[in-house]
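hiii, so i know i said id send this last week but things got crazy w the move. better late than never?? heres the sequnce for the chain we talked about at the cafe, plus the structure i predicted for it. fair warning i was half asleep when i ran it
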Amino acid sequence: MAPFHCLTFLTDYGLEDAFVAACHGVVLQIAPKTRIIDITHLVPPGDIRRGAAVLAQTVGYLPPAVHVAVVDPGVGTARRGVAIAAGDSVFVGPDNGLLSWAVAEAGGAIEAVSLTNRALWLDSATATFHGRDIFMPVAAHLAAGVPLAQAGGRLDVASLVTLPRPASRITGGRIDAEVLTVDRFGNAQLSVTGPEAARAGLAPGTTATLAWDSRELTVPFGSTFGDVAAGELVCFQDSAGYVAIAVNGGNAAQRLGLHPETLVTLTVTK
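okay and structure toks below
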C-alpha cells in the first residue's frame, strides 16, 4: 500500500482534555510527515449516528487519506476494531456502524481487516482509550505504507456493522422524513436530499406544510437564510445537499422542538 500524506480524525473526545493531543502525538511519532486534519471532536458523547453523518458528509471533500473516527461507547468490550479500504482511502475505528455511511459514500468496502496485530498497537494498550492505543497507531502505520493485510485478520465485508439508513419516503407531493442532524446554529437537517424533494415539487419559490409532533405550520422553500425576514422560518437545500429547516438569525431546532430522529412531514402547498 502506498503511503498516505494525510490522516483525518473525528471523535467525541471534546477539547477540554488532552485526549486529542495524545492521539496526534502518537501519529507523529510513527509517521512524522503525515498531515492530520481534525474533522471535529465535538460529536455529542456516544452519538454514533451524529458522527457517522458528519463523516459521510465530509469525506467527499477530503483528499485520499486514512480516516480515523472514534465514537465508541463499547470501548474495551467484544466489539471489533477495524480498518476498511473503500475508494481511495482507508477507514479506521470501532465496528459499531460509525464508519458505515462514509464507507458507502466512498464507494463501498473493498477489503476489511480486524485490528488484531498487536505489533502495530502501543506497547501497553488500555481498555478505555483505544483511540490513542490502537486506532491511531494502526492508522499511522497504514499512512506510512504498511499493507492493510498486516493490520490483522481479513474480514468478510458483509459482516461489518452498518447503521440503518434514516427513514424517508416521497408520495406525490408529500415527503415523510426524519431529522438527521442538528448543527450548532440550530438548523435541522432532514433525511431527504434536495433532488429527492424536487421530485415532490418542493423547490425554491414554493411553500410546504411542515407537520411534526401534532404540530403544523407553513414554511417557504428558499435558497438561503436571507430569503426570509430575520426571525422567520425557511426550508432550503443545505451545503451537504439535504433539505434543512432554519430560522434566519435564530435556532429552528430550539424553536420547534426538533431533535435527531424527530419524524416530520412536508406537504407541498403551492
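btw The two ends are 55 Å apart (CA to CA). thought thatd interest u
miss u guys!!
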